[in-house]
Structures are given as structure tokens and as C-alpha cells.
User: Which sequence fits this backbone?
């Protein structure tokens, strides 16, 4: 069955238009069609969160969304959060606090954390652990991930206070 | 270049060498989504391969029809064993001296076994093709229990039956039954049994270490690209041992080794899963040769859990004897090892049960015996070292459980029993009863530090109160105190007794210093998250006096890196780290001659000082390493070749023996079986500490994997051989919510034979953590008569234990 | 894990949904958050030649707190449930339960309608809706009908909903009851080993009304009328709670799985229910 449909979406601020089978999973669209390889495939059953992206303000596991569902949406991946010239606070905090090892979960982890901090700018450790529970890391034991996110939160808060 | 204003401390700090908490150089790309994992690779014309897998654990294949699959738009080829047979590639050698079907040759031996390989233009067409390959199976009797397998008339491996004149030997000697793989032993059986017979006290227990899986977040995969014009094969993949893979590919394909380039790009965690060679690699290579274009194969999570590389599955029968006052006199262990359908264990050739013979642990045990029987069953092959050095985790789990069991038998405190029996500092190097020579240790110091840190006596008092409260009906929660003192054996290993498939287990480092004083070093290992690019540069910075930030570390490309056996078994620091230091010292030796020439003194009149050579007695006269590097390339120096390079292949004289003292405090709800880790203290002694930040990260991660294994993570089968835990719904990987914060601590007892005294740490927390969590669960019930209960300690099994002890009223 | 191909429909109104359902019968399935259906499709355990995405269908969202009852559109997500302050006032057990479902990402996508409609005995909302005596609104070719949550579930993945109907709304009667949603699970993201939804209304220290439903302990959610009745008229003394637990145990029928054997599940169900009752009573 080759019933390709016309898809339009905004990914990391860029309009994208292409033809795709509706069954194409968003993670494959990003990684293979658009060469946005930051989000990864870990479990494929929506348990691990390595494929996490932000869609219209929601943290979403892109392995469990068809490209057809994402038609017309705004998608942000780790690549859209920050790059060499404009690192996101979380990106530097993960490095500073050794919040990653193999790096495979990291893009999904940071993308999820960015949304968590938007919704809860001043979380407790418990809130971070609960809010990050959709992302599995096999390397770090989470302790330094939690530390990185709390540090990023403090930094964002300090920057906000300084601006006021 | 003169910098007298800086102090020596400033200069040391500027190097970013050993001992500092250097931030990781790998992190920039990973945090920005710019890692380079194998599935990120995209080549022109690349095809995608996918497997048809057996739904049955044991079945004969009556027929395979590929017609409908071939008719799918985008499907290019479907390979079966019949296609591979003319190439001699329908079977492949395993790391354990056995052979394994690449694609099912007449029958299947485990659920998920590879039956056919569909090659298509993308993964969607490949998956559609897989659905339409028609395979007719005839189900056969399934054997999932190794003890039953050894009694059964059912022959699993018909290929090993010989010509009717008795059962042929296996790779490790005679086999006593058609489902038997090997018997291997260490120590003195007769003497041990004699001691047991005459002992004042003997404790016995059967300890089962259940089957589980390393389950890195990135599954296994590869891209094979055969360049037919130039006759060159390039193979990118998730390989923990790229050079070994190159050699294996050459041996089985007939392509000369110089025409094969194996590249391990970034690897998303390994933990032992990515040591072996899998059918996916072979099929991808064949498919690329057949089609002339690159072929990618990436397994999905179910395939990963069901087929590539299980770990453990050891039934360990133990007996430990002691005097009435607790001095251990002997240890006896017989292990039944379930290896699944093919013996694909990743162990050094001479050690079919890995280093299980480290099972005398941290204790001075005069006599011991270990016997291991390997058995075929209808389960997946593997037997990899999941975050441990070749069955060390089984060994440590066994002895640390047996110590607890003995403590119960003796009615003695388990900490006290350990202290009575620890190998004493002055006994090192210590020759253990099962053959190994421990390099160094100071167990009493570590243990006392740990007991003090957690206020052990206070914990026991609190626990006693809790038991009273429980008995009085004031609480339904018990408190467990898990203790573990582990001794690992890592850094395989000396070539005289360690090889895999005949490949000696040395490792290597090659350094090139650039004229402006920066450098590149290449190693035979490959990081999977351990941070080699950060830590090996630190070793070199200290050894050669150039800043770590000016040193690039490169691994994983067999065309450029020197030959080495890869990263697993905590061998990178003990072996490749040593090679790095030794290569650095060669650089320094040449630099010394250059410095002496430049300073117009004799070679012996200069000495190395942090980042420079100084004239002895006139420290104001010096040449920095940076100046020396420039001179090495750009100044004619009589009798010295231009350039500044070195290579070292390091064959370690001995293994290293990291150790540690762990304490876990756990609350257990006896009604629901729910556990709560209240505290976990981990003291590690990995010898010289290269980067404390990275060590701490390794400890956190290893403990979390240990928690998972001890408290629920298993590969479970039903009696039909169906895998019951094939997705992350049922295969337990804890989230941030289920994991505690850990307290880390350390002592430093350098390895006397390692150039920088380092021992390796990546696996210690897993090896020590598993028994520590398990001991905590067992300890919670000790007051109610429990001696031992098997892992994994998930809710229902804990509940069952409590129920059997009558704690539910 | 690649799903089979399908035709994708994204209608903007119910008429459009019903037209596709009518045309394709049980070859068509509606898609809400997709976190139950998509994994099944990826494992090729669900074959769906026609997929009807409900995201653009007007009138399926929204939380409407009215006098005496709460109307929740089927496409309302768990996150929206959690974040709705008004709802947390009038029906706090919804938030308490929603927070115990899956993980943050899944809660952004997972909907109330999907959770109650697909008949998965592991889902948390069906038992909760039975406890709260909710009513489901179903729209089909013959118009709209209402079914009590307590009458909706027939077997695993089998409900009273016809193939050509869509569950569009959940209506929950307001209650001033003490409440608790208690769930034992192996980890975040897991289904319940045992879960209990309990509401209790008290008056002058006596229980005047109680409702109890259990999750993942049978092939459907189990509203145990007898368990609730055992509490009514008592001050929740030990005997009353024992009677409620015993009644509940008579109504559930758990099966063995990776979470444990039947005896354990019954034991856990009893413990979880006792805790839920105690917590609900403390809030009553």
C-alpha cells in the first residue's frame, strides 16, 4: 500500500514539507528523512524516552506517534534547544555535573528536562525524579542527572532574578 | 615561553592530569544531539536488513517460502541458510569455541532465533517482507531446565552427535551427555571434601543467579559496506572489540584482514552486550557483498532482549566449612551453567566458566574446589559478562551469600565473620586456593571505614528494635542491612593465560606529538560511555607534561588504531591505560634526550618536572614539553631521529584486583513485598584514581544496574520456551523514581604491577552491588528464620518469602 | 517494530468519524493518544487498515465542571486532568489517579476516553469511573446513548461499545466523599499489580455511602458493590473493613503474570484496599 500523504511541519523553527506514508513513525521522519539524529530509538514501546521531542508544548515520545498525527505541528528536538553558539543551560549543566555517560539517552533527557523546567521552574529533587520518570538512563544511575537539572533550575532562576 | 611566575601547583593544575575532576570532552556532542551512533549513519543506496525469527523455542523447519516476501515493493533479497551454505557462512564460530547457526539450518533452538534475513530499500519494506516469509515448523519437545536437559533423551545439538562412535569431545574436553557442553574445575576437590568432612561447622546452600540481560539503551546494529571496486569491506557497528571483530570477519569470510575496516562509532552503552559476534553482522556483510551496496541492520528492543547476549543463569551449589569460632576452613562449589542453544559465552579460551574461580572472594580460605558443568537448553545463547569481568559477578554473589549463610549457621554477626576471615594486608600478593594471585589489598581498613561511616552498631540496634516492634504488631516493615566486601579480578589479561579465539588479551596505545605541542593518541579499546577520551588524556597529560586539553584520544577505527582487544571486563584502564602510560614514558625518554641537547647538558643531568625537563640543581634552566615537541620536528639533533611518536603494546603481568565495602539499608513492606532503599554506602578501592568525577559516575551507574538485577530484572521463560520479559514493560529498568541517592567513598591501594597503580572501576559497583542489595533482603528476614532466598527480589517473591515464614498471620 | 500500512483519516467532526466507521466497519479504529494502540500496531498485534485520528474532531475536549456533575471530553489528556484546578477541587481523586498512570510523556498524550474505551484491564481509569459511577456517552449512527461505567466492561478489550460507535464523553457525578486511589506497581510506567479506587461519605462518624472498584485484578475492572455496602452504616471498625476486603476478594479473579501468582495478587489487593479505605476514611 503506497498511500503517501502530504505532510507539513515545523521542526526546530524550519518549515518542512514532504510526502510520507502515514504509518511512518515520527522518530523515523526526524532521523531518516530530516537527518535530525539527536532523538534516539531505545525501546520502541514508549517506555524509555530516548526519542523524546517537544510537540506543541508537550513532551512526546516520537516512537509512538505517526508522522500523520504530527502533520501541522511544531516540533522541537535537542538540536532546536541550543547549539555551539547558544547552549541551553541544561546542556552546559549536564556537562558540568557529569549528567551523562554514553550519551544515548541524553538528547531525550535534556529535551524532557527543558519542558519540566518550563512548567516547574523551581522543582524539588522529588519533583525532578517524578517528572523525569519517563526517561530511562542505563549509565548514570540518575544521581548526576538530577543534580544537573536542579543546577540548571537554579541558574535559570538566578538569571531571571538578575533580569528583574 | 618562560613562565617563572607560575607555581608548580599552577602548572600541575594547567595539565588537567591524573587525579583531577576533569569535565568530559565527549559531552559537547552528546548534549547537543551530535553523537555519532551506528543508526545515525546514512550512506548512498543503503539497504536495510530485518530478520524473520522463530516463534518456537525448539522446532524443525519443514519449509521456507519467500515468494510473497519477494513480491513486496522494495524487498531486494531474502537470505536463508540455503543461500549462506555455499559460502560456508550458515554457521559461525562463537567466542567459546562452539559454533552457532547464522540462519536456521534445519531447526531452531530458541525463541527468536534467526531464520531468514530480508533485505529491502528501507526498514518499512523490510518489516513488510518479514511478515510475508512463510515458514513451516514442526514443534519439538522444549527443554528450558538445565537439570532436566542433562537427563533428557531429546537431543538439542544434532550437529554435535558425531558419527555414532560415542559422543565427540567439545571445545573444553569430554562431554558426559548429548546436552552437556563441558566440565571445568579448579582447586583441589579431594582435599576440600576431606576438610568439609572433618569440619566443626558446614553451611550448605544452593544459590541461583537468574538469567538477565545487559540491555544497553542502544541496541546492537551494524552497517556493512562492500566496495567491490577496491575489494574493501567497511563494517561500522556497536562493537566493544572492533579489532577482534575484524579478525573474526576475516577468518570466516576469507577477506584478507587489510581489506577490512571495522569502525565502532559512538556506542550507546555496552555492558557486555556488544562483545559478541551476532548473525546480524554476518548477514549484513553477506547482503552487502551480494547487493554491492551498504546494508544496515539494527535490532529492535525485543530482538535485543530475546536473542543477543543474556547474562548469568548459574545454579551454584555451595558448601562452606569453618571452625566454631568462625575461621573458614574450606569452600566447595558446583555450578550448573545454562548456556542456551549454542555456547556463545564471552570468556577467555582457557576459562569456560570465566573467572568464576575468584569465588573465594576477599577471604583467606585455605582449600577450595570449583566444578562447573555447562549445559545446552532451548534458550538464547550468550552468557556475556554483564558489567563484570567474566562471571566475577556470579562468583562474588556466591561467596557473599555463602558468608551470610555461614554467619547464620554460626549465629555470628556477618560483619564480624568477614573481619575474621579477610585476607590480611601483609598477605599480599596473596595466592588464592583456586589459583589466582591477588595483587594488593587492604580489606580491614576499607571495611572498618565503611562500618564506621554507616554506624554499623547503631544500625544493628535499630534493626533489633524494628524486629521487636514488628513482633509487637507496631510495624509491618522490616529492616535489612546488606553487607558486601567484594574482590574483583579484572584487566584480562596476561597473554600467557588469557586469549579469546586465540587472540592474546594485551592492549595498545600509539601516540603522536604534534610540533606545536598537542597530540593524538589512539588505543585498541573503545569507550561506550566510560569517558576514555577524557581519562586517557589525563593519564597522558601527567606522563608527558602536555595539557589534557591538547590531547585527542581516538578509538574504534581499526585502520588507524593499534590492535587491541577492546573494552569489557574493566580491562581498559588496567591494560590500555597501562599501554598509554608506557607509550607516554617512551615519549618522555626521547624528550629527555632532546631537552638535554637543547640545554647543553648530559641526558642524566635533566629531570622531568610536571610539564618540562629541568637541569638538576638549576631548575631555572628548563625546556617545556611544548618547546621540546617543536624541536623534535624542527631542529636537527645529532643522533636523534626527527619526530616524537611512540607505541606500546602492553601485556599485563597479572590481573588487577579492585575491591570495595558496600552497605545497603533497606525497608521491606512484608505485606506488599515493596522495598525501599533507605541508604546505600559504597566504598571503592580501584587503586590510583584517575578522575574522581568519572569514578563516582561509574559507581552510581553500576549500583543502579545492580539494583535492577537484584530487585527484579530477569529474562524469564515459560515452560514452552517463550520469553516472558521481552519489552521494557516487563524487563525491569528502573527510572529516576525508583533509584536512591548513593554515598560514595574510597580508599587507595595501588596495584603494584600497573604502571600508574590503577585497577579499573566500571564494573565494581555492579559486582559488589548485586550481593549487597540481595543480602539486605535476606538479612531483613534473618530474625525470622530465613537462610537464603533467590533473586530477583521483586515484590511477589519477597511476599512469598514473608508468607512462607508465616509473617502474614 | 514497524506497523503495517494503513489509510489515515483525520476528520474534523463526528459525522466524518462515523462515516469512516460506517464504511469500513471493524477495519477502522479510532486513535486518541495512541499509547495503547500504536505499540500494538507496531508489534503487529493489532491490524488497523483504517485509522481515524480524533485530534481535530471538534467537541471532544474540555473539562466542564457543572453543578452536581463533571463533564470530561474523551480527548482530555491525563495532563489536562492533573493541571485542572477546578477539577482538583470537585473531584480530586481523578488527579490522584492520573498521576499514577504511566509517565509524564505518556500523560501528555494519553486521554481519558482512550483509557476508558479500549477495555484494557490494566488501565486505571475504568475502575476509577466505576467507583465514581460515571456515565459514558457513546455516539453512533443511531445517535447518542449513555452507558454506566459499571455496565460497560464485558471482558478484556470487550466492551458494550459497538464497532461503529465512539466514546465521546465521561460524566461523573460530583461527590463530597473522602477518596483514595491506591496503586501498587513494579515501577513508573507499569500497570497495577493491584489498585483500588475508594470513595467514602461520612456523616457523624458513620459511613453513609461507599464505593469500591479494583483494577487489573480480573479481565475487567471490578466494582465491588458488596465491598462498599459492607462499610455503609459502620464507623469503619476492623470488622467492617474485614468484611469489605472479604467481599472484594469474592469479586476479583486475578490471573498469574510477571507481577506474580494469584495468591500474591489477592493478598496485595487486600492490602491495597485496606490502605485505600483508611486514606479515604481519613479524608471523609
Assistant:
Amino acid at each position: 500500500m503506497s498511500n503517501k500523504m502530504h505532510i507539513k511541519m515545523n521542526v526546530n523553527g524550519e518549515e518542512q514539507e514532504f510526502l510520507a506514508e502515514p504509518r511512518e513513525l515520527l522518530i523515523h521522519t526526524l532521523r531518516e528523512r530530516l537527518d535530525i539524529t539527536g532523538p534516539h530509538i531505545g525501546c520502541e514501546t514508549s517506555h524509555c524516552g530516548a526519542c523524546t521531542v517537544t510537540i506543541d508544548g508537550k513532551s512526546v515520545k516520537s516512537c509512538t506517534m505517526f508522522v500523520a498525527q504530527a502533520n501541522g505541528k511544531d516540533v522541537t528536538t535537542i538540536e532546536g534547544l541550543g547549539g555551539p553558539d547558544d547552549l541551553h543551560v541544561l546542556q552546559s549543566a549536564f556537562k558540568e555535573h557529569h549528567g551523562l555517560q554514553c550519551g544515548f539517552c541524553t538528547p531525550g533527557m535534556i529535551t524532557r528536562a527543558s519542558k519540566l523546567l518550563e512548567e516547574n521552574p523551581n522543582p524539588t529533587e522529588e519533583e525532578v525524579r517524578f517528572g523525569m520518570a519517563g526517561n530511562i538512563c542505563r549509565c548514570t544511575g540518575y544521581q548526576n542527572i538530577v543534580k544537573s537539572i536542579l543546577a540548571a533550575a537554579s541558574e535559570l532562576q538566578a538569571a531571571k532574578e538578575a533580569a528583574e | 615561553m618562560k613562565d617563572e611566575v607560575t607555581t608548580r601547583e599552577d602548572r600541575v593544575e594547567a595539565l588537567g592530569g591524573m587525579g583531577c575532576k576533569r569535565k568530559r570532552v565527549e559531552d559537547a556532542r552528546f548534549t547537543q544531539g551530535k553523537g555519532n551512533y551506528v543508526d545515525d549513519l546514512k550512506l548512498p543506496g543503503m539497504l536495510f536488513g530485518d530478520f524473520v525469527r522463530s516463534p518456537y523455542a525448539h522446532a524443525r523447519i519443514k519449509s521456507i517460502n519467500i515468494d510473497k516476501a519477494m513480491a513486496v515493493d522494495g524487498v531486494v533479497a531474502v537470505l536463508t541458510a540455503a543461500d549462506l551454505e555455499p559460502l560456508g557462512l550458515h554457521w559461525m564460530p562463537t567466542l567459546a569455541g562452539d559454533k552457532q547457526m547464522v540462519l536456521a539450518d534445519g531447526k531452531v533452538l530458541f525463541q527468536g532465533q534467526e531464520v531468514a534475513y530480508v533485505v529491502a530499500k528501507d526498514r518499512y519494506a523490510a518489516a513488510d517482507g518479514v511478515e510475508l516469509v512463510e515458514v513451516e515448523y514442526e514443534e519439538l519437545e522444549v527443554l528450558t531446565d538445565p537439570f532436566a536437559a542433562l537427563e533428557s533423551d531429546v537431543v538439542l545439538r544434532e550437529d554435535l552427535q558425531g558419527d555414532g562412535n560415542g559422543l565427540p569431545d567439545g571445545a573444553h574436553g569430554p562431554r558426559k551427555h548429548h546436552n552437556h557442553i563441558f566440565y571445568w574445575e579448579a582447586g583441589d576437590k579431594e582435599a576440600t571434601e576431606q576438610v568439609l568432612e572433618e569440619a566443626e561447622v558446614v553451611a550448605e546452600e544452593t544459590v541461583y543467579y537468574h538469567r538477565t540481560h545487559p540491555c544497553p539503551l542502544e541496541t546492537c546494529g551494524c552497517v556493512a559496506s562492500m566496495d567491490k571496486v577496491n575489494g574493501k569491506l567497511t563494517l561500522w557497528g556497536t562493537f566493544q572489540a572492533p579489532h577482534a571483530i575484524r579478525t573474526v570477519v576475516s577468518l570466516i569470510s576469507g577477506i584478507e584482514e587489510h581489506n577490512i575496516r571495522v569502525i565502532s562509532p559512538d556506542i550507546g552503552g555496552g555492558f557486555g552486550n556488544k562483545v559478541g559476534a551476532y548473525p546480524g553482522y554476518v548477514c549484513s556483510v553477506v547482503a552487502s557483498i551480494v547487493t554491492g551496496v551498504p546494508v544496515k541492520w539494527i535490532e529492535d528492543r525485543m530482538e535485543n532482549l530475546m536473542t543477543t547476549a543474556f547474562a548469568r543463569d548459574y545454579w551454584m551449589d555451595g558448601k562452606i566449612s569453618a571452625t566454631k569460632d568462625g575461621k573458614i576452613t574450606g569452600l566447595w562449589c558446583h555450578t550448573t551453567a545454562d548456556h542456551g542453544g549454542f555456547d556463545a559465552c564471552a570468556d577467555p579460551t582457557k576459562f569456560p566458566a570465566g573467572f568464576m574461580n575468584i569465588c573465594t572472594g576477599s577471604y583467606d580460605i585455605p582449600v577450595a574446589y570449583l566444578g562447573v558443568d555447562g549445559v545446552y537448553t532451548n534458550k538464547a545463547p550468550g552468557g556475556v559478562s554483564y558489567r563484570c569481568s567474566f562471571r566475577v559477578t556470579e562468583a562474588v554473589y556466591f561467596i557473599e551469600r555463602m558468608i551470610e549463610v555461614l554467619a547464620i549457621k554460626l549465629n555470628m554477626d556477618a560483619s564480624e565473620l568477614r573481619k575474621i576471615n579477610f585476607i590480611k594486608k601483609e598477605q599480599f600478593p596473596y595466592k588464592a586456593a583456586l589459583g589466582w594471585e591477588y595483587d594488593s589489598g587492604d580489606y580491614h581498613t576499607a571495611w572498618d571505614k565503611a562500618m564506621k561511616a554507616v554506624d554499623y552498631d547503631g544500625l544493628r540496634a535499630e534493626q533489633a528494635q524494628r524486629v521487636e516492634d514488628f513482633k509487637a504488631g507496631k510495624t509491618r516493615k522490616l529492616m535489612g542491612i546488606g553487607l558486601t566486601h567484594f574482590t574483583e579480578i579484572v584487566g584480562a589479561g596476561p597473554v600467557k593465560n588469557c586469549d579469546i579465539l586465540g587472540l592474546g588479551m594485551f592492549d595498545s596505545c600509539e601516540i603522536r606529538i604534534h610540533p606545536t605541542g598537542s597530540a593524538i593518541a589512539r588505543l585498541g579499546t573503545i569507550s561506550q560511555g566510560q569517558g576514555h577520551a577524557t581519562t586517557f588524556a589525563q593519564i597522558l597529560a601527567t606522563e608527558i607534561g602536555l595539557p589534557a586539553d591538547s590531547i585527542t584520544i581516538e578509538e574504534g577505527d581499526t585502520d588507524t588504531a593499534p590492535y587491541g582487544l577492546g573494552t569489557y571486563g574493566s580491562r581498559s584502564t588496567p591494560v590500555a591505560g597501562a599501554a598509554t602510560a608506557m607509550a607516554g614514558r617512551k615519549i618522555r625518554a626521547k624528550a629527555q634526550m632532546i631537552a638535554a641537547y637543547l640545554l647543553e647538558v648530559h641526558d642524566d643531568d635533566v629531570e622531568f618536572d610536571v610539564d618540562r625537563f629541568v637541569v638538576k640543581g638549576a631548575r631555572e634552566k628548563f625546556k617545556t614539553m611544548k618547546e621540546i615537541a617543536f624541536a623534535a620536528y624542527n631542529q636537527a639533533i645529532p643522533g636523534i631521529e626527527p619526530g616524537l611518536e611512540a607505541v606500546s603494546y602492553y601485556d599485563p603481568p597479572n590481573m588487577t584486583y579492585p575491591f570495595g565495602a558496600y552497605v545497603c539499608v533497606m525497608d521491606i513492606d512484608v505485606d506488599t513485598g515493596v522495598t525501599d532503599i533507605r541508604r546505600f554506602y559504597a566504598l571503592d578501592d580501584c587503586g590510583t584514581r584517575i578522575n574522581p568525577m568519572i569514578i563516582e559516575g561509574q559507581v552510581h551507574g553500576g549500583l543502579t544496574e545492580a539494583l535492577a538485577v537484584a530487585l527484579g530484572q530477569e529474562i524469564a521463560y515459560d515452560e514452552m520456551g517463550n520469553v516472558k520479559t521481552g519489552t521494557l514493560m516487563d524487563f525491569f529498568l528502573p527510572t529516576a523514581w525508583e533509584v536512591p541517592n548513593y554515598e560514595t567513598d574510597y580508599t587507595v591501594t595501588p596495584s603494584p604491577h600497573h604502571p600508574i597503580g590503577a585497577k579499573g572501576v566500571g564494573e565494581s559497583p555492579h559486582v559488589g552491588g548485586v550481593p549487597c542489595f540481595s543480602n539486605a533482603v535476606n538479612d531483613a528476614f534473618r530474625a525470622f528464620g530465613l537462610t537464603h532466598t533467590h533473586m530477583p527480589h521483586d515484590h511477589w517473591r519477597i511476599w512469598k518469602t514473608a508468607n512462607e515464614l508465616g509473617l502474614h498471620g | 517494530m514497524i506497523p503495517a500500512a494503513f489509510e489515515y483519516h483525520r476528520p474534523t467532526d463526528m459525522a466524518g468519524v462515523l462515516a469512516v466507521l460506517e464504511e469500513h466497519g471493524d477495519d477502522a479504529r479510532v486513535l486518541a493518544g495512541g499509547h495503547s494502540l500504536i505499540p500494538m500496531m507496531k508489534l503487529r498485534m493489532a491490524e488497523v487498515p483504517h485509522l481515524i485520528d480524533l485530534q481535530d474532531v471538534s467537541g471532544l475536549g474540555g473539562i466542564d465542571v457543572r453543578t452536581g456533575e463533571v463533564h470530561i471530553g474523551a480527548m482530555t489528556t491525563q495532563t489536562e486532568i492533573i493541571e485542572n484546578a477546578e477539577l482538583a477541587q470537585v473531584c480530586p481523586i481523578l488527579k490522584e489517579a492520573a498521576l499514577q498512570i504511566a509517565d509524564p510523556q505518556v500523560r501528555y498524550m494519553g486521554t481519558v476516553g482512550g483509557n476508558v474505551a479500549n477495555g484494557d484491564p490494566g488501565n486505571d481509569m475504568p475502575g476509577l469511573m466505576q467507583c465514581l459511577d460515571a456515565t459514558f456517552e457513546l455516539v453512533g449512527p443511531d445517535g447518542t446513548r449513555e452507558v454506566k461505567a459499571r455496565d460497560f466492561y464485558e471482558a478484556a478489550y470487550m466492551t458494550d461499545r459497538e464497532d461503529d460507535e465512539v466514546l465521546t464523553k465521561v460524566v461523573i457525578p460530583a461527590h463530597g466523599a473522602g477518596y483514595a486511589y491506591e496503586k501498587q506497581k513494579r515501577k513508573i510506567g507499569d500497570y497495577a499489580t493491584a489498585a483500588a479506587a475508594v470513595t467514602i461519605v461520612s456523616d457523624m462518624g458513620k459511613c453513609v455511602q461507599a464505593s469500591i472498584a479494583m483494577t487489573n485484578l480480573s479481565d475487567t475492572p471490578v466494582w465491588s458493590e458488596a465491598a462498599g455496602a459492607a462499610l455503609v452504616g459502620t464507623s469503619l471498625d476492623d470488622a467492617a473493613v474485614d468484611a469489605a476486603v472479604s467481599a472484594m476478594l469474592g469479586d476479583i479473579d486475578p490471573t498469574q503474570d510477571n507481577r506474580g501468582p494469584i495468591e500474591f495478587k489477592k493478598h496485595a489487593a487486600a492490602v491495597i484496599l485496606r490502605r485505600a479505605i483508611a486514606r479515604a476514611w481519613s479524608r471523609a
About this structure: Chain B touches chain C at residues 123-124, 126-128, 131, 300-302, 671-674, 712, 716, 724-725, 728-730, 732, 734-735, 737-738, 794-796, 799-800, 803, 808 (CB under 8 Å). The mean pLDDT of chain B is 96. The two ends of chain B are 81 Å apart (CA to CA).
